[in-house]
């Protein structure tokens, strides 16, 4: 395997709470995918805010791992966090984020995105590593 990028982010959960208070649905629509919203909205109170903050941190970490941040056509909604049936979080890239990932790959290579995230009020943390290897 070949390491293509690594990124991490620490998010203050209170920052997400303030953004929700100020911008509500507009903030959620602009930043989070439908799957992320469904998962976070199954929770209440602090757990809901932590779910959103972890996903915010994961998006930031992934944008850093891609080497672009939120520029060059990479937007928050292009970076989604989903979960496998086991509960393991996984990054799902679309749009400009997917195009950037594809541009990093050598011909015949496939990417693997590793994600870990956690929260302990008042912080949420995420780390992303992207590696590449042969298809198969």
From TrEMBL:
GO terms for molecular function: holo-[acyl-carrier-protein] synthase activity; magnesium ion binding. Residues 5-98 form the 4'-phosphopantetheinyl transferase domain. Signal peptide: none annotated. Mg(2+) binds at residues 9, 60. Transmembrane segments: none annotated. It catalyses: apo-[ACP] + CoA = holo-[ACP] + adenosine 3',5'-bisphosphate + H(+). GO terms for biological process: fatty acid biosynthetic process. It is an enzyme of class 2 (transferase). Its EC number is 2.7.8.7. The keyword Transferase applies. InterPro entries: 4-PPantetheinyl_Trfase_dom (IPR008278), 4-PPantetheinyl_Trfase_dom_sf (IPR037143), ACPS (IPR002582), Ppantetheine-prot_Trfase_dom (IPR004568). Keywords: Cytoplasm, Fatty acid biosynthesis, Fatty acid metabolism, Lipid biosynthesis, Lipid metabolism, Magnesium, Metal-binding, Transferase. GO terms for cellular component: cytoplasm. It is found in: Cytoplasm. Its cofactor is Mg(2+). Belongs to the P-Pant transferase superfamily. AcpS family. Transfers the 4'-phosphopantetheine moiety from coenzyme A to a Ser of acyl-carrier-protein. This is Holo-[acyl-carrier-protein] synthase. The gene is acpS.
């Amino acid at each position: 395997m070949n390491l293509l990028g690594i990124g991490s982010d620490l998010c203050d959960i209170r920052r997400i709470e303030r953004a929700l208070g100020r911008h509500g649905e507009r903030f959620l629509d602009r930043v989070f995918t439908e799957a992320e919203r469904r998962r976070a909205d199954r929770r209440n109170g602090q757990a809901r805010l932590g779910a959103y903050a972890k996903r915010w941190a994961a998006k930031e970490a992934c944008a850093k791992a891609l080497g672009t941040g939120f520029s060059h056509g990479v937007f928050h909604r292009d970076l989604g966090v989903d979960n496998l049936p086991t509960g393991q979080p996984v990054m799902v890239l679309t749009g400009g984020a997917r195009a950037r990932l594809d541009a990093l790959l050598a011909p015949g290579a496939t990417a693997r995105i590793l994600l870990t995230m956690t929260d302990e009020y008042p912080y949420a943390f995420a780390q992303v590593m992207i590696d590449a290897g042969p298809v198969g």
